[in-house]
Here is the input.
Amino acid sequence: MFIFGFLAFVLGVLDLKNPKTLLKQMGFSAIDREARGEDDYTEVFVMTSSMASTNMGIYYMLAALLNVRQFFYWTVPFRVVTFVVFTTAVLKKYAPLKFITVPLWELTGALLTGWALWTERDKTAAQ
Here is the structure.
């Protein structure tokens, strides 16, 4: 949980500094601000997404440091929902194929977290 939080925090900060980084990572065109239309708010959306990533990273790191187990349990189904929504976006061609790394990241995180919680539960029950 801490590592995921740290990665989300670092990527969020980096993408706040340079929004094109996030767009390129996800397979979107990274067009210069000057070349965008007056009503193109892509960079504003990237900024809000990056800020959310930064905040989420802090939440995850704090939850890990404080061992807020209930938070860990909540993340599993919500990350699976995120996987489904983002995978659907790729399948419906709302997002480029390279974007599939985002839902795969979410599913991997959900499965690893669920597995860790299941393993710890079994260890606790055995004591």
Observations:
- The CA atoms of residues 53 and 108 lie 17 Å apart.
